Amino acid sequence: MRIALVSPYSWTYQGGVNRHIQSLAEELLSRGHYVRVIAPFDPPDRLSKVLHRAPAERLEAPDYLIPVGRTVGIGANGSVSNIPVFPESIRGTRRAIEQGNFDVVHLHEPTTPANGWDTCLSSSTPVVGTFHAYSTKQLPNRLAALAGAHRVVNRLAGRIAVSEAAAWTGRRWFGGNYTIIPNGVDIDMAHDGEKPDSESLRALFVGRPDERKGLPILLRAFEALVEQAPSRLAVVGAEPDDVRRLLAYPELEQHLDLHGKVSGPELWRHLHEADLLCAPSLSGESFGMVLTEAFAAGTPVIASGIAGYSDVVTDNVDGVLVPPGDPQRLAEELQLAHHEPERLRRMGKAARQSSKRYAWPAVADQVTKVYERAIEVPEPEHAAERFKRRLGVVPSDGLAATPAVRLPSLDPAPADGPGGRSGMVRKAALGVVGLLGVGLTVIAAHRIGIDDVGQAIVRSDISWVLVALGLMACSLFFRAQAWYYIARAAMPGSPLRRRDFTSATMIGVLMSATLPARLGEPARALALTRHTGRAKDNLPVVVGTLVSQTMLNLVALLLLGMIIVASTDLFHNSTKTLFTFSLAPLILLLAVIVLPSILKRQGNSRLAKVGAAAHEAMVKVRKGLAIFRKPKIGFPAAFFQLTAWAIQLLSCWALMFALGLDSQAGLAASAAVLFAVNVTAVIPATPSNIGIFQLAVISVLTTGWAVSSYDAFAYGVILQAVEVATAVGLGLPALVREGLTWSDLRTQALATAPVELSAHPRRRESDGTATDWLR
To answer: How do 276-279 and 201-206 pair as beta strands?
Structure first.
C-alpha cells in the first residue's frame, strides 16, 4: 500500500503528533508499505527563531520525509502550534500528493488551516483524518464551523480519534463517525530490569513549559515536598531558563535536574530511572503519549484526572489521578509515594502490563483497517450525490450523516485554575465592574459633549504633554530609589541592587495600569523577591517594605491635603470624605504591628497551627517596617519618595499648561487632582481605574476651580493617557530585562500560595476507591 502521512506541524519543533507520525511511519515501513511523511521543516536559522520565539532543533530529515516549507508559532489550545501559513507549504503538499500516486492520504489534525484544509478539499485520493486534540473552547471552534470546517471534515473517507476526548471534540463541533485508535508506544525501546537504587524520590516531568501542562503547579507542590522528604525532580522538554522563570523561589533549583530537550534514547533512560512520572496538566490533553511511554518503562504515573489522561490511567492500579490544578493534593500523593516504595513497585509492574494495549503492532493493525475501508468506499452512482460529496455537504465515508451535538465537557473543574467556578464568577464580576467604569465614562462624555471634549484635547499643547510624560517617568525612578533604601533597612544581609528595584517598580506600574484590583503590588513584590536570595523567606519582608512605602505615601497625601486646605475651601466640602478615606492605610499599618501578637500559637488545634503560620508570616512582614527605626536610612527613603510625589505633582501641573488652564487652575488644583485620583485608586476595579479616574478629576476641577466640564474631562483623559503611556513605555522593557511575561507573573503569583505537608502523611479516606472528586 502506498501511504502518505501528512502533518500540519513543523518537524523540527517536535511534539506529540509528529512523534506519533514518525513511529507509525516506521512501523508501516517495517511491514513493507511505501510510506512518505509530508510535513513542514524549519531550518535552525535566525528566521525560524523569530517566527517561533524559540530556536528550531537541528534534526536530520529521515529518508521518508518530504519537507514542505516553514511554519509560524501560534498560540492555540493553551500551547503553541507551529503551523504553515505560507503558500509554499500548500503548493508543496499538493505537489507531493499528486506525484506520489498514493492509495491513501492520512491527514493528521484535519481541522488545522492551510495544508490541512487544502488537503481535504483538493485531494482526489481517499483521505483519512486523525483527530488528536481535545478542545472545548467555543469561540475558535464556532469560527471554524462558520468558515466551513464541517464541510472540510465531511471530505474525509475515514475518521480516527486517538481517545474518547478527541472523539468528543469531533462529535461536539463537526459531527460524524469516529474510530477510536490510541496513540502507540514502542515498548521495545523501554529499558528492562530493576530501577537504580536511590534514597530520594525521583520524580520526572516531561513536556513544554506551557501553562496548561501544569509545571507551575508541580513546582509549587515540590516546594513543599522537599521540606518533608528527600526528593528530586527531573524536568525534560522544557529549557532550563524557561523553568527558572517559573520559580517563585529560586532556591528550589538545587532540587531540580533541568535537562531541556533530549533525544529519544535519553528520554527512555530518564523514564526508566524515575520512580514516577508527574503529568499535572490542567486541561486540553486528548491522550498523553508520555503516560504510555512511562508505562512501557515500568514507571507509574501521578496525573491530573482530566479527559485524555483518565482514559489511560487506572486510578490506584498503574497510577494515581489527582484533581487538576490542586498542588496540595499533588504534594500529598508525592509524599505518600516516598513513604510507600512497595506500592510504587506494584503500580510499576501494572503499568508495564498496561503498556501492551498501546504497542505499535496492535495500533498499526487498527489503522490499516481504516485505510482499507476508506479505499473501498464506493463512489455514488448519481452525479448529484457525487457533487454533494465533493462539496462536503454529505460525508465521504459512505456512512449516514451524524450532525454535531451539544455535549458536556469531559473535564472536571480545576481546583483553583482559570476554569474553576469561582474563577468564572470572579472574571464575570470584574467584567461587569469594568463595563460599569467604561459606561460611566461614556455617559459623562455624552452629557458633557464629545465634540467639546475632543476639541479641548486637540487644542492641547503637545510640548507640555511631553514634559508631563517625562516628569511622570522621572517620578517612578525616584520611587524605585525610595524602595531600595526601605529594603536595605529591612534586609541588610540580602544582595540588593538598585536596578532590580527599578525593574520591579516599572513592572508593578505596568501591571496596575493593565490589570484590575491593584495586581501591580504583588507583581512588583514577586519580581523583586527573585533577586533577594532566599525568596520564600524574603517575600513577606518585601511585602512589609511595600507597607512602609504606603506609609510614606500617606505622608505625601497629608501634605497634598495641606496644600488644598491652604488654597481653597474645597477641603471643607467634597474632599473631606476623600481625605478621611485616605487614612485607610493606617489600618494596614496597625494590622501589621498588632496581628503578630494576636496570632501567637496557643494549642495544637488546626486553627492554632494556621494562626502560628500567619504569625510567622506577619513577623516577617513587620521586618519591612525597619525603615522607621533607622533614621540614617529612613531619611533618604523619605526624601526620594516625597520627591517622587513632588515630581508627579509637577507633571499634573504641566498638563494644566498643556490645556491652557494654568491661569484658572494652578498648583493647588494639580495637588487636588493628584490627591483625588490616588485616593479613589485604593481599590481599583478596572485597569487604570478607568471611569472613576475621570469622574474624580471632573469633580475636583469643576467644584473647586470652576473649570468647564469638557476641559476637566479632557484633562482627565490626557492625564490617564500619560500615566498609561509611562507604564507601558517603562514596564515592557523591564519585563524584557527580567525575561518575564504577564503569564509568568501570574503563574508565579499562583506559586506563592502555601502548600503545607505534615511530617507523617495520612492517606485520605477516598484513597483505595474511586476518588470522590471524580464523581
So the answer is: parallel
